[in-house]
Amino acid sequence: MAVTLAKVLETAQGSVNETLKELTEAPLEEEDEGLATPENFWQELGNATQKIASEVAKLTLVLTQPPKPTVSIAQNIVNGVEAAWTTLLSSSRRSPPKGALLRKELRNAVLRIGEALATLLKALKEAENGSELQMTGRVWEACTAMEKVPRDNLAATRSLLAKEELLLTDALQEIEEELKCSRLSENDDVDNSANWTNQEKELLNPCVGLVRTARASIKKVGEAVRLKGHCRDSTGAEQLDRLAVAAEKLSPAVDTFVASIYPPMNKCSVSSTALAVVTVVREFLELARQCDVTGESDSEWLSFLLRAVDHNNNKVQPLLSPD
């Protein structure tokens, strides 16, 4: 049976999907000190990414513009796309940079390119009207995003901490805005049945204080990382990794806590989610105290924030005890 163009594209799509599965399931590789320098690593990766974008453009142009190519010509172009994808995979695995966080971000960027490529091959196979160009654009976007991957673990950690700080700021602003609206409605002739009860209002200040402390913690540790963080050696990179893991627990815990504060309050839910926030904030601050990014000059603000966590929680929990 003669090989068809659809079969060529289907085979290529299957090959890309198989490598995506392997990449997803494989553990993050450790750095090999004896291989490429960081500069060469990123240059090779950039060249491989540009090659994919170029080969994809060629494939889409040939398959969407008349006249239709022969299967042989199409096969050669598809081979070029697959070769470019294989080169990208190989380049991304050659001397992976220091730091699990950075290696994770790099792998995710490669996965996004591969997923977009597989989707494009499927669209070309099915000759979906107009979607081929859209899917090509997605491959290009994924390739462009590779340029924005941080070049070392310090940059990756700083970026993550900045995102977490923004999320915590949003959560704080959300609950503060809700409080403001609630106070305004109290002065108007409106139905207040959806507002907090007087007993619940006693909880609001320490609850908001707990969220403010979480936000202040990520802000101060972020400043310390910016000033003293490094990934020159494995110890520095590993410390940044641990801080990143701890930081990522903050916004989910705070979001769940803030959601539990809304009326009508469930005391058990507020109590348990408050304790969860206390746990992750204390863990984050204690970890920062143990890392090289903080020293004796930072002990004052670390101790202050730890006391603030306990202070607000000690105000919240008694008010939640059974009547």
TrEMBL record:
Its main location: cytoplasm. Keywords: Cell cycle, Cytoplasm, Nucleus. It holds the Pfam family GCIP_C. Residues 44-177 form the Cyclin-D1-binding protein 1-like N-terminal domain. InterPro entries: GCIP-like, GCIP-like_N, GCIP_C. It is found in: Cytoplasm; Nucleus. It comes from the Eukaryota. GO terms for cellular component: cytoplasm; nucleus. Residues 188-285 form the Cyclin-D1-binding protein 1-like C-terminal domain. Belongs to the CCNDBP1 family. This is Cyclin-D1-binding protein 1 homolog. The gene is LOC117651641.
